[in-house]
Structure formats: C-alpha cells, structure tokens
Model the fold of this input.
Amino acid sequence: MKNVLIVGASKGIGKASAELLGTQPEFKVFGTYSKTSTDSTEHIDYHFLDVMAETLQIDFLPEQLDALVFCPGAITLKPFARIKPEEFMADYQLQLLGAVKVIQAVLPKLKASGSASVVLFSTIAVQTGFSFHSMVSASKGAIEGLTKALAAELAPNIRVNCIAPSITNTPLAAQLLSTPEKIEANKLRHPLKKIGEATDIANMVAFLVSEQSAWMTGQVLHLDGGMSTIK
Ligand SMILES: NC(=O)c1ccc[n+]([C@@H]2O[C@H](COP(=O)([O-])OP(=O)(O)OC[C@H]3O[C@@H](n4cnc5c(N)ncnc54)[C@H](OP(=O)(O)O)[C@@H]3O)[C@@H](O)[C@H]2O)c1
Done:
C-alpha cells in the first residue's frame, strides 16, 4: 500500500486526483483542505492544513510517505504596472514557499519510502508568455526551477515532476469560465478545441505517483490541449 498526501484535495485538480487514487487499492490517500472544510470519505482521509501557517500540522501522517502532490495555487491576472511588490510576495508565499515548506516537512517520510514521487504544478504561462500573467508566471517559473533542482538533489530515491496545465475547469478558473461565451472562446484558443477538465490532470497525477513513471524525473509535463507547442 502506497501512502499519498494530496495537499489541496478539497477542490479542483487535487480533489479529482484524490478521488481517482482513492478508488485504487494500492493507494492510501491523505487529503487536505484549508478553507473548504471536507469530511473524510471511505477512500480519502481528510485533514486541515494551511500552507501559509508558520508551523505545518502534519501529525496525522504515517512515518512513510510514498507520494506528495502539492495543489495550492493562484491565478491573479493584473497589468504589471499595477501590481504591488507585496502582491508578488504573497503569490510567491503560497505557490513557491508553500510547496517548499511542505516538501521540507515531509522529506524524512518521503526518504523512508525508498521510492517516492513528488508532483508539483506549474502553468502554461511559464512556457508561453501571456499579458497580465506576470505574478503567476514568476511564481510558477520558480516551481519549475525547484522541480529540476530537487529532482537532481533527491535522486535516485525520490522523483520530482511538474504538470503545467492550460486553463482547466476548476473553482480556481471559475472567473475565467463564468459565461458560455468565455468557455467557447477558451476552447477555440486550444488546438484540441477543449479546455481541461480536472480529471484530465488527475490522470497524469495518477501516472506520476505510480511505478509506471518510475524512469521519469525532473520533467515539466505540458497538459494544455496542444496550446504551448502547436501553432
Ligand atoms: N485550473 C487552472 O486553470 C490551472 C491552470 C494552470 C495551473 N493550475 C495549477 O494547478 C494547481 C491546482 O489548481 P486547481 O485549479 O485545482 O485549484 P483550486 O480549484 O483553487 O484548488 C486548490 C486547492 O488548494 C487548496 N488551498 C488553497 N490555499 C491553500 C492554503 N493556503 N493551504 C492549503 N491548501 C490550500 C484549496 O483548499 P481550500 O479551498 O480548502 O483552501 C483547494 O483544495 C494549482 O497550483 C494551479 O496554479 C491550474
């Protein structure tokens, strides 16, 4: 049985990933929420965890952790000239330092596995430049750097990979998909003429935490309907 921690499993991609892994007998899933209080289910053991807190409460975790999936993120779109340095810092605190703190807190448990997998999240807006995305691009660019550095430092016993989605139908993207017109326009921007669903991304999470990806580390996987590479 593999113990998997999904930080941010109350909504969106984290929830879809927890539900997918929870039904597979080889995984024991620990999911967390911070604001969206969530009861444990037959397949998912839910606990409170706020990654912005100074001290992380992770005493619910077992001694050995075989996978960590870090989902908290933000998409705050604003003209660069109007963003205060404090806003850049708050975004970085959640997206980069949140991940750093969690990985450091559970590192001894991941090491105890002997064959662990860490999954982080970037965005298409790192590979491809978009107006008003400077905050999220900067924070997620740091996540991509962290992915590669940790993949090197933690090999061969801990693999570290990162998924870079384009717009995906979750609460985080709700404002960008709030009308049928916005949904249609977003579909048409993608070569595959669809936006992502949380389950599209959860399928990649399931692959990355499983032994099927045992020879993969330090990768940024572009799940974006072809948008970042096809003209
Ligand atoms: N959706 C997209 O279009 C898209 C595109 C590119 C990249 N991504 C990236 O994919 C990842 C998952 O996104 P998503 O769309 O599934 O996001 P989401 O719908 O907002 O879900 C985020 C999860 O993180 C948790 N969370 C938020 N703040 C937290 C905190 N301070 N401490 C602990 N947990 C916290 C939330 O729990 P609570 O509600 O309980 O706080 C929730 O379970 C993110 O890193 C995002 O940047 C998403």
In short: Residues 22 and 41 are 9 Å apart (CA to CA). The two ends are 43 Å apart (CA to CA). Residues 2-223 form a domain with the Rossmann fold fold (CATH 3.40.50.720). The chain is about 35% helix and 20% strand.
